[in-house]
Automatic annotation (TrEMBL):
Keywords: Transferase
Organism: Streptomyces viridochromogenes Tue57
A Pfam family of this chain: Acetyltransf_1
Any GO molecular function: acyltransferase activity, transferring groups other than amino-acyl groups
The protein, known as: Putative Acetyltransferase
Signal peptide positions (record): none
CDD domains noted in UniProt: NAT_SF (cd04301)
Presence of keyword Coiled coil: no
Length: 202
């Protein structure tokens, strides 16, 4: 049986934020950005809310009909680096830090480091984040969300890009046709991220 997927609207914002927060609270990169667990529990929702608002403004959020999984996508023009000009310039990461956690330089640092490795020169679909409710992980919901867009990429001849934030997610994306792009990103005194690229399949 297929997974029913729809485009999320503004009325789904809090649901999307809750999904992202629950799925990424214990992610290695989130743990690096917010090393103190209590602080992470309190502040992480504001970070994923900021990401959600950016994608609602400039991209698309796909949501399973039952509200248990979501994927945040941006369509990136050939000359772009993944975020609209307001968030892509030098001020964007600093503004993000000021809005989310002003005393935490890693909020700004992660935004700058991922922007630095984002490929330019070819239009592509950027999977910024994907989240499945913890109690529903392993059921294929995330794969269904990703493949629905990859199928369109294949039809339109458009590549796709993402950064895997764990070895487990990297293996999933490799099964979907993504390959490591350049070298992994080793966060300072932190975990590794894998920039991954997928050419469209004919």
């Amino acid at each position: 049986m297929g997974v029913a997927i729809r485009a999320a609207g503004e009325a789904d914002r809090e649901l999307v934020v809750r999904l992202l927060d629950a799925a990424f609270q214990d992610d290695p990169v989130s743990g690096w950005v917010f090393p103190d667990e209590e602080h992470r529990r309190a502040t992480h929702p504001a970070l994923v809310a900021a990401f959600t608002d950016i994608v609602f403004a400039d991209g698309r959020i796909d949501l399973t009909e039952d509200g248990t999984a979501c994927a945040l996508w941006l369509s990136i023009p050939a000359a772009d680096h993944g975020l609209d000009p307001e968030h892509r310039d030098d001020e964007g990461p600093a503004q993000l830090r000021a809005a989310v956690d002003p005393d935490n330089e890693r909020v700004e640092q992660i935004a700058r480091l991922t922007a630095d490795i984002h490929p330019a020169g070819r239009a592509h679909e950027y999977l910024w984040m994907i989240a499945v409710a913890p109690e529903r992980q392993g059921e294929g919901l995330g794969t269904a969300l990703v493949t629905s867009v990859l199928d369109r990429c294949d039809r339109d001849g458009v590549p796709a890009y993402l950064e895997a934030s764990s070895a487990r997610s990297r293996k999933l994306y490799e099964r979907l046709g993504f390959e490591l792009l350049g070298r992994p990103l080793d966060l300072p005194d932190g975990p590794r991220m894998w920039p991954m690229w997928r050419e469209p399949r004919g």
